[in-house]
Design goal:
The chain has 449 residues and is mostly helical. The chain has 3 domains: 1-97, Helix Hairpins (Orthogonal Bundle); 138-265, Four Helix Bundle (Hemerythrin (Met), subunit A); 282-440, Helix Hairpins (Orthogonal Bundle), CATH 1.10.287.70. Helices cover 72% and strands 0% of the residues. The protein is built from 17 helices and no strands. This is Ion transport domain-containing protein. The chain crosses the membrane at residues 72-95, 144-168, 188-208, 283-302, 365-393. Residues 18-105, 151-399 form the Ion transport domain. InterPro entries: Ion_trans_dom (IPR005821), VGCC_Ca_Na (IPR043203), Volt_channel_dom_sf (IPR027359).
């Protein structure tokens, strides 16, 4: 084509209906270079910027494909140093300072040691009530309880759940009738096994103590869903009652919840999930801050970029019918995409366009405002607030691990005192309550950067 024969900016501008245009992200001045490097640090669209730089020949000269491949060293070095190390060190500083602030705040709270001791005393009393309860069991029930708390019992149940998952994965569309009947009978067998486990544990632990744990409540829900699915399918196949097929499909899908029974046996995952639940109040406060930031930036986005249109003369690389700032609702969704890092540099590129109908000074001002708008939003959402959420979870996980160690110690104490109570008639309750002294004081180490 005629454009392919152009080599310089002067030749381009001498041709009718042609205009010399630079790439939006370039290194023409310090401001543009900083903005381009910020995009590289976020790792969103950095490959395209690198290829454009490799094709660059000189000032006001037409690019040539793969003209200077040595520039790869510059970009790869920047990604390795800044994106992989500097950004992660920035995240580490945020997390450490957040945890230090939390530790200082907890240290200044009145009655902190007293509350901690009250929690320990409460856990000890709970263990003692269980000790007294289980010591009065009948021999048969005690035997059931001893079997339930062994690791082999959990391993057998875990193996059965694994087999159940394998049988569920064998189902496919237009499968033979024999395989369909086989999987149906397997479902009956597994449902009966899980129902027997449920009844066994209720007898062993007692209804009150069994349902006191949330994981047992989840187990109960899974068993009830399994029984309900068998009953509903049986009633439906026998044409006893008219049942909506959609309800049957939903019940069948809920069978996959049996996999969740494995979570009860994975102590590490249990701790992680419990940590997330305990951190919800603090994460909720951060979520409100997120909403506030999204509300402010969505309102600004509608005012600043609400009239941007995509056309053949002004094509868009990020904005489209599903991502724009023409109304508040879609602006919120667009900012959510920006916060996740999905082509946010393409959305910003569309807002950096040059409008010939506006004065040059206004165009420059809008480019500056757009750059500041997106850089601040990306910094606050991708780099700061999300990492504060991680810091909250890390702090809660650390506290949960400390509590697990404390429970293990209390469990050993309870076992020792139980043996002493049986063989020597000692007062186990008073001895356990007296352990660890009247108060437990936690050491808090504050580090300053």
């Amino acid at each position: 084509s005629l454009a392919d024969s152009v080599e310089t900016k002067q030749q381009c501008e001498s041709m009718p209906n042609h205009r010399w245009q630079n790439h939006k992200y370039n290194f023409d001045n310090l401001g543009q270079a900083v903005l381009t490097l910020f995009i590289l640090a976020s790792k969103d669209g950095w490959v395209e910027i690198m290829y454009n730089a490799i094709d660059a020949v000189d000032v006001d000269v037409q690019p040539i494909r793969n003209y200077s491949e040595a520039k790869l060293i510059y970009f790869i070095s920047f990604i390795l140093i800044v994106s992989f190390f500097v950004v992660n060190m920035f995240v580490g500083v945020i997390i450490e300072n957040f945890q230090n602030c939390r530790a200082q705040q907890e240290l200044e709270e009145a009655g902190r040691d007293k509350k901690k001791y009250e929690k320990i005393l409460e856990r000890k009393q709970s263990l003692l009530s269980d000790l007294s309860y289980y010591s009065k069991m009948s021999r048969c029930r005690k035997r059931l309880y001893d079997i339930c708390i062994t690791k082999y019992f959990d391993l057998i149940i875990a193996g059965i759940i694994g087999l159940n998952v394998v049988t569920m994965s064998l189902e496919y569309y237009s499968m033979p009738h024999e395989l369909e009947k086989f999987l149906e009978y397997c479902n009956y067998v597994f449902t009966v096994i899980f129902l027997l486990e449920f009844i066994w544990k209720i007898i062993a632990f007692g209804p009150v103590r069994y349902f006191r744990e949330k994981w047992n409540q989840l187990d109960s829900f899974i068993v009830l869903v399994s029984v309900a699915s068998v009953v509903i399918e049986h009633v439906s196949h026998g044409h006893i009652l008219p049942i909506n097929p959609t309800l049957i499909r939903v019940i069948r899908v809920l069978r996959i919840a049996r996999v969740l029974k494995l979570l009860k046996m994975a102590k590490g995952i249990q701790t992680l999930l419990d940590t997330i639940m305990e951190a919800l109040p603090q994460v909720g406060n951060l979520s409100l801050l997120f909403l506030l930031i999204f509300f402010i930036f969505a309102t600004l986005g509608v005012e600043l970029f609400g009239k941007l249109e995509c056309s053949e003369e002004q094509p868009c690389t990020g904005l489209n019918q599903h991502a724009h700032f023409k109304n508040f609702g879609i602006a919120l969704l667009t900012l959510f995409r920006v916060a996740t890092g999905d082509n946010w540099n393409g959305i910003m590129k569309d807002t950096l366009r040059h409008d010939d109908s506006h004065p040059t000074g206004r165009n420059r001002l809008m480019i500056i405002i757009s750059s500041i708008y997106f850089v601040i939003f990306v910094l606050m959402t991708q780099f700061v607030l999300l990492n504060i959420v991680v810091a909250v979870l890390m702090k809660k996980l650390e506290d949960s691990n400390a509590m697990i160690e404390q429970d293990a110690t209390l469990g050993e104490e309870m076992g020792q005192l139980h043996d002493a109570d049986v063989h020597h008639g000692s007062n186990a309750e008073q001895s356990l309550l007296d352990m660890n002294g009247p108060c437990v004081k936690e050491k808090v180490i504050i580090t300053n950067l």
